[in-house]
Amino acid sequence: MTTTTLLSDEQAAIAETARDFAAEHLAPHAVAWDRDKHFPADVLRKGAALGLGGVYVREEHGGSGLTRSDGVLVFEELATGCPSIAGYFSIHNMVAWMIDRYGDDAQRARWLPGLCAMDDFGSYCLTEPGAGSDAAALRTRAERDGDHYVLTGVKQFISGAGTSRVYVVMARTGGPGPRGVTAFVVERGDAGLSFGPDERKMGWNAQPTRQVVLDAVRVPADRRLGAEGDGFRIAMHGLNGGRLGIAACSLGGARSALARSLAYLADREAFGAPLLDAQALRFRLADMETELAAARALVHQAAEALDRGLEQAAQWCAMAKRFATDTGYAVADHALQLHGGYGYLNEYGIEKIVRDLRVHRILEGTNEIMRLIVARGLTGAGR
How far apart are CA 55 and CA 122, in angstroms? Predict the structure, then answer.
């Protein structure tokens, strides 16, 4: 089922554009890209020609100027073709939005044209080997040296690392805790920047994931995003949108798995009748559709809260991310079960969706941390 009946004409057109792109350029190649661990840069640039490289970037800076409510439609549709590539589109757009929102005019002019065209790819560098969910504990340092900063540290699990040109890096310029963190833009050619080997992963194989190693990387002060000490706030605001993007990707991947299950059960017979005639299986399908619809409603409500700048937006984004990624994974897993042994085979593409969606419950903040954010909102703890 699609959501177009509940959308404005403009939103329906946005969703249709993303859906058609996914059907033509992503879905036919998704299994092969996963198998070959191929990052299809040329295909991403085709998406950028449709405005997918700067979804949230303001139009005067070369982007599409869409809202978060529009964006979740885009990422859900892209994920029906390939959750891994849709997930990278979401991360890239988070980076572009952060530069548009927190950069100055010179920084926007320097980086946004390449990012929006996806001539340059972007990576978000927050997580470290010893600081994942506790992002305020990060240890990467940025020492002021005249008109420059010198960055030293290691970032872990960075999507696009090595391929991306633009890295938004969170580093500590002050004391412990969130107020000591500052955001910087590092470029791939900067001296002292290197990358670890490609990680061998369960899923998301169509995009590279590597360490980003900063060995006394010297950058001019005009590479700083915002003021010193603003980095943690910038990082968290970026993650609000990133969580919605990943939540929407879970919806799209699960929706594709459900559609494949419907087709499979209609075609497959057992005991002289199509499997789709079995009431128990119909009930399972009904539950899968209902759970996805509920998750989608929560994602859209969170997107509206973020668009409106509501005080509770971060809590809503955490709820949406937790619920949609758990639900999407569960629906995809049920789809694999409905396919029987065939669901376990690579060629059917169901097991790939399951593997891709599993990581959505971890990245952009684990779902356990999403529960912590929601609980804090309820109890007032940490305010």
Answer: 14
